[in-house]
Amino acid sequence: MFYPPSPVNHLTLRRPFAVQTLRIARCGKIIALMRPALVLGFLPILTVIALFLALAAGSGGVDFNAMLAVLSGHGDSMSRDIVLDLRLPRALNAFGCGALLALAGALLQALLRNPLADPFVLGISSGAGALSLIAMLMGAGVLATAVAGFAGALASTGILFLLAWRGGLMPIRLLLAGVILSAAWGALITLLLALAPDAPLRGMVFWLMGDLAQADPTRAWLAPLAAFMTLGLAFPMARPLDALGQGELSAAALGVAVGRLRALALLLAAFVTALVVVGAGSIGFVGLVTPHLLRLAGLRRHRVLLPGCVFAGGSLLLLADVLSRSVVAPLQLPVGAVTAALGAPMFLWLLSRSAKR
Amino acid sequence: MTLRTLNLTVEIGGRTICRDFSLAIERGSRWAVLGINGAGKTTLLSTLAGLREPAAGVITLNNKALQDYGPRQRAQQIGLMVQDDHDEAETTVLDVALLGRLPYLSWWQAETAADEAIAMRALDAVGLKGMETRRSATLSGGERRRLAIAALVTQQVPLLLLDEPNSHLDLHQQIALLDLLCDLPERTLVMSLHDVNLAARYCTHALLLFGSDGAACGGPIEQMLDPAVLTKLYRHSVIAHETKNGRIYLPA
Q1: What ipTM, to 2 d.p.?
Q2: Chain B residues interacting with chain A (CB cutoff of 8 angstroms)
Q3: Under an 8 A CB cutoff, do A253 and B82 touch?
Q4: Is residue B243 part of a domain?
Q5: Are B117 and B213 part of one and the same domain?
Q6: CB < 8 Å to A28, chain B
Q7: What is the pLDDT of residues A270-286, one digit of tens each?
Q8: Which of A21, A108, A239, A258 to substitute to test the interface with B, most B CBs within 10 Å?
Q9: Could you give the dihedral angle defined by the CA atoms of residues A123, A127, A133 and A135, in that order, rounded to the nearest 10 degrees?
Q10: Same domain for B140 and B107?
Q11: Is residue B84 in some structural domain?
């Protein structure tokens, strides 16, 4: 005989399951809400780990224990020279440049509302690179090369403003102008490399692919300082940039001065890119990939994305530099080649992932 | 809250949307902006929101010229729902709703628990409670429109300008959304609509843009929705049909 389940039995069987499901759903929601804070809390730890790896890795015969001894004020003089005068400045330069590139990438992606934007897409870095190479060819010193690089970046930014300003920066015009400008500077760079005598050619090519070795121990703190200063300047733009993600008109209706925001973001990104190119040459993919990775990790709002970029971009370049110094040690690979080798498949993976969504 | 236009002339690309147009939008009224495609409804709404300079004339909000309001001050009074919004940043539903607090926060301030409570209440009001952590890019068209309304509710503005709020929605969603908008307490609504019957059902006033020579007129809905006027407006014969549920408008 069939007896329908009594209501009491039905409830006692089903209710704990329902409550449990509800609890899991609530926990999932709490974790989702806390995720940005958790990721942001983890990133400085990643930076410290990457920094230790950068100080320990290399071909100078200074291992992890020797590095710890140096950092605790002991260790022999050779170890101190290698860790404090060679590896630490290079690591600080790598961290600062990576952080700056990631910040520039995040700013440009928000400004152009284009996920493919990065510091190299607008031709600012190519402009800096072309004039720096001309300075190198003319036998200029480090300072004159840096000044030439800055002049190239500023010239590119000026041309971009001229071409893309129609009562405000037009993102599509900016992107098109940037791509064309980048191609033009690229052609000039190829010409310079083709005409360059053999002696400076290897240095020029290495510099073009990204060279962190030029870090000066006395000025190594400049790049990290610039990164944190840039974060300080970009942070007030964070919420307006979030609003810009909803569309220009929506942002303006929320009280955002869209034209001013775009101009400031472009100027800051251009300045930052010039700093990096002058300090470490052309290093691709960090600015493109870092903001994407952080968004995937849950840092979607710029108030958490921008600080995240400092630590994640810095850590990524630090780790890429460790690889560039370790893979075929004692030979050193150009760090730009390593970031490109890692960044290209990573970006393709990101692209396929977004296509599936 | 009263929005007035005085001898307003709006132009775009050498075309005049309205010329020497004066009207008063009083608190609590619900206006439908009607006109054919390209008549300039979106442009007019942007101008009324203070986001475009009029070619001539003045717009005042509470007897103060709209140009004299700062962007944040203005955003505390007027909310605008655009026609085709899409979230490039792929933020969560709660993040989008919280953007409504932007006009009230300085750059160094984080949203407080009170701001989050306002956003959560708005999401609850539009039926999106429980979706706070979902990415807004994964919402359906109807849910996205409701989220845009939640952001406007979070903005806590007395005047809402809505550009085709019911576009891309099925009939049920259109009714649900317009019911929701009209149930918002103490809000003045100005919305561009394509459906005259929905305008008749939900609005107290209508603003007609004839799309030629800047001809425009506005007034109480029963005066504006005259078949002869609508025929001129849509350049197609419109007839009115009386039913037990009221008057409906049909193309002849």
Answers
A1: 0.91
A2: 46, 49, 51, 70-76, 78-80, 82, 84-92, 94-96, 99-100, 102-103, 105, 107-108, 110, 132-133, 137-138, 155
A3: yes
A4: yes
A5: no
A6: 133
A7: 889 888 888 788 888 89
A8: A239
A9: -170
A10: yes
A11: no
Which of B108, B141, B156 is at the close of a domain?
B156
* Interface touch B91/A252, C-beta < 8 Å: no
A191-195, A210-214, A305-309: least confidently modelled range: A210-214
- Tell me the CB-side half-sphere exposure of residue A288, using CA atoms within 13 A: 20
Is B166 in the same domain as B143? no
Residues in Cβ contact with B191 at an 8 Å cutoff, skipping those fewer than 6 apart: B30, B31, B32, B33, B160, B161, B162, B163, B164, B165, B181, B203
Stretch B122-148: mean pLDDT, rounded?
Answer: 89
- Tell if the CB–CB gap between A253 and B51 is shorter than 8 Å: yes
Contacts of A239 in chain B (CB under 8 A): 99, 102, 105, 107
**What one-character-per-residue DSSP string does B8-35 give?**
EEEEETTEEEEEEEEEEE-TT-EEEEE-
Map out the domains of chain A as residue ranges: 101-349
Domain count across chain B: 2
A222 vs chain B: nearest CA distance in angstroms? 25
Q: What's the token pair of residue A301?
A: 């709002």
Alpha-carbon distances of B64 from A79, A245, B68, B70, B206, rounded to whole Å: 72, 31, 7, 12, 24
Q: What is the pLDDT of residues B67-103, one digit of tens each?
A: 999 999 999 999 999 987 666 667 889 999 999 999 9
* Full domain range(s) for residue B135: 92-156
Encoded tokens for A280: 């470490």
**To the nearest whole angstrom, how far is the Cα of A92 from the nearest Cα of chain B?**
28
What is the fold, at CATH topology level, of the domain defined by A101-349?
A: ABC transporter involved in vitamin B12 uptake, BtuC (1.10.3470)
Contact A274, A124 (CB under 8 A): yes
The answer on B162 and B133 residing in a single domain is: no
Whole-model pTM?
Answer: 0.85
* Domain stop point among B106, B139, B156: B156
| Choice between B131 and A72, residue whose per-residue pLDDT is larger | B131
User: What is the Cα–Cα distance from A64 to A43, expressed in whole angstroms?
Assistant: 22
> Based on the domain organization, do B67 and B100 belong to the same domain?
no
> Is residue B184 classed exposed, middle or buried when 0-12, 13-18 and 19+ CB atoms within 10 A define those classes?
middle
Cβ neighbors of A343 (< 8 A, separation 6 or more) are A284, A285, A286, A288, A289
Mutate to test the interface with B, among A242, A258, A305 (most CBs of B within 10 A): A242
Q: For chain B, what is the radius of gyration of the CA atoms?
A: 18
**How much of chain A, in percent, has pLDDT values that exceed 70?**
87
Separate counts of helices (H) and strands (E) for chain B: 9, 12
Burial of B228 (C-beta count, 10 Å sphere; 0-12/13-18/19+)? exposed
